[in-house]
Amino acid sequence: MTSDGTVIASISADKAHDAAGNGNPASSSTDNTVTYDTTNPDVTINQAATQADPTNASTIHFTAVFSEPVTGFDGSDVSLSGAAGATTAVVSGGPSTYDVAVKPAQPAKPAKPAKPAKPLARRRAAG
Fewer beta carbons under 10 A from the terminal one: N or C of the chain? Predict the structure, then answer.
């Protein structure tokens, strides 16, 4: 096969014979066509139409559009970068158009300040 397209299999009449010499009738299948596809799907990802820019929302939405239906696309397939520190992408929708919801890294909880040590003079007196 040299290009994308359909492959149709059929059998003409009298191509096979039984022991008595009777030939087969022509095939009459209705499920004898398969689409041959070797072209990779194209994809674009853009700011979602409803996404404000600039924003301070905790989730930022993008829309990924593939040129044909796809399977297996999930958040682990999205690369995130930029100064805002986004770390998580949640993908929903499909099979050709997907919402990519991006969430920032969870801020670290502030450390509790340590109690100040007793001054050295008070520790010696207590000892």
Answer: C
Strand partners, 86: 104
Predicted local confidence at residue 16, as pLDDT: 97
Measure the CA–CA gap between 121 and 119, rounded to whole angstroms.
5
CB neighbourhood size of 99 (10 A)? 15
Give the whole-angstrom CA distance, residue 62 versus residue 52.
11
Tokens of 15: 């191509």
SS3 call for 94? coil
Domain boundaries, the chain: 1-39, 43-104
85: left (phi over 0), alpha (psi -120 to 50) or beta: left
Helical segments of the chain, H only: 120-126
- Token match 């041959």: residue? 36
Q: Which residues contact 54 (CB under 8 A, 6 or more apart)?
A: none
Q: How far apart are the first and last CA of the chain?
A: 91
pTM of the full structure: 0.68
